[in-house]
Amino acid sequence: MQIGIDKIVFQAPAYYLELHTLAKAREVDSLKYEKGFMQSQMAVCPLDEDIVTLAAEATQKLLQDENVENIAMFLFATESSVDASKAAGLYVHGLLDLPKKMRVIELKQACYSSAAALSMAKDYIASHPEKKVLVLCSDIAKYGLGTSGEVTQGAGAVAMLVSANPRLLVLQGENTYLSEDIMDFWRPYGELYPSVDGKLSIETYLRFFETVYADYLEQNKKTTASFDAFCFHMPYGKLAYKAMQQLLDKYVITEEEKEKLEQRFFKSTHYNKRIGNIYTGSLFLSLLSLLETDHTLKAGDTIGLFAYGSGATGEFFSLQLVDGYQEHLEKAYHESKMQERKELSFEEYEAILKAEKDSRKTLENKPFVFLGLEEKKRQYQKR
Ligand code: CAA
Q1: Which of 306, 290, 338 is nearest to 239 (CA)?
Q2: CA nearest neighbour of 233 among 141, 333, 124
């Protein structure tokens, strides 16, 4: 039985900041952000948008023509959770009035847990082929004003429907993974911003990629020639590019093959470079970028994916394109949502990050908004 991603939808926040605006305010050469990080904009959430409203909007689009009665499980991957106990997916479940007879669970391991969710969904469907699993990745990446991580902030949600006989991509082979207790990035309870050892996080990301990729080739009896493209967890484009270069230097021999993989890599940054890091969703946003912008890929082609979550866990897995996949992509929706975004001035961006009271505005064109807390309970409005 073939199991994989049947449908995928991305939701961008309402606002964004041009990184040349940030560079000017921080008195940094804007080429550092453009070339050194390979990023051009960062997504910013107003205070009435959060991981729940982003996820609800993505899910509403994902499920618009679906029979939701078949969804047996809802896995919500996030590292910017809104509650230490209640799963964020339950708010989405309520806002969208999803069927009661389903499991709703939140998964955490930094940016990695979305890859685990996809794999768990596959295992579930293997024994319940008539069911579907909803996988959500939703995060707001914030490092704080004036920090070295500031340029790598972002926000967004990716919703995926996992099923048997998927219309987009089939999960293939045996995934390989690696976990070690490493303090490269963490966020203690009560802290708004993460603590980061930037250099260690980069070294660990690259080392984990090298290990899980080599393990994958060995375990699955594959070579680099078995892949037509690669997608990486993308905290910022340059780090994923370094992983790509590491692979090309070590494994790829022909110039032609190298050029093809590099060209496809640049396609895989299409949305990420305008959104920034979205933690759990970054890898899948990169996959979406590739699928929606590369017109040379075809049914039967194989994409290798590297998931990484600081702390740290890494995983390598692969997906094969299904015949007619292009017809089931939501490219027009994604581009229109990107166009609808409002550009912020530096002062507006600063006010949002400082969470000043007067920076809360009611978003007029959004179907879901976060209204704040009442008696410690999160209040959402559905329009
Ligand atoms: N023109 C062109 N390039 C320039 C430049 C200029 N004028 N000035 C600097 N650069 C280049 C630098 O040479 C460097 O390139 P290389 O990486 O190829 O050497 C690049 O711009 C970045 O410059 P710095 O190394 O000086 O950047 P920094 O020290 O200010 O910050 C960082 C980098 C440590 C990653 C920081 O942004 C950070 O802490 N980010 C958050 C943590 C993170 O994203 N880590 C990634 C791995 S962890 C992970 O993947 C999980 C996750 O999602 C968080």
Answers
A1: 306
A2: 141
Burial label, 374 (beta-carbon count in 10 A; 0-12, 13-18, 19+): exposed
Of 372, 354, 380, 341, which Cα lies nearest the Cα of 16?
A: 341
List the one residue out of 13, 24, 118, 25 whose CA is nearest residue 55. Answer: 13
Report pLDDT digits (tens) over 259-276: 999 999 999 999 999 999
How many CB atoms are closer than 10 A to CB 58? 27
| Rounded distance between C-alpha atoms, residue 60 and residue 35, angstroms | 36
In testing the pocket of ligand 1, which one of 38, 152, 203 has its CB within 8 Å of the most ligand atoms?
A: 152
Amino acid, single-letter form, for residue 40: S
Residue range 200-229, pLDDT digits in tens:
999 999 999 999 999 999 999 999 999 999
- The token duo for 78 is 């996030």
Per-residue tokens: 103:
């499991």
CA proximity to 42, closest of 120, 156, 125 = 156
Q: What are phi and psi of 113, to 5 degrees?
A: -60, -20
Q: Which residue has the tokens 């804007």?
A: 30
- Other beta carbons within 10 Å of 331: 12
Q: Name every protein residue with a CB atom under 6 angstroms from any ligand 1 atom.
A: 29, 31-32, 35-37, 111, 148-149, 151-152, 185, 196, 198, 201-202, 205, 233, 235, 238-239, 277, 279, 308, 310
- Evaluate if pTM is beyond 0.85: yes
The CA distance from 307 to 33, in Å, is 23
pLDDT tops 90 at residue 364: no
Q: 14 near 157, Cβ under 8 Å? A: no
Q: Whose CA is nearest to atom 22 of ligand 1?
A: 36
Please report the pLDDT score of residue 360 as a whole number: 59
Cis ω for the linkage preceding 312 (within 30 of 0): yes
Residue type, 262: E
Contact 4, 171 (CB under 8 A): yes
> What is the token pair recorded at 280?
């759990």
Q: Cα–Cα distance between 351 and 348 in angstroms, integer?
A: 5
Residue 365 has pLDDT above 70, yes or no: yes
Asked whether residue 287 carries a pLDDT value surpassing 60, the answer given is: yes
Q: Do the beta carbons of residue 323 and residue 299 sit within 8 Å? A: yes
DSSP string of 356-372?
A: -GGG----TT-SEEEEE
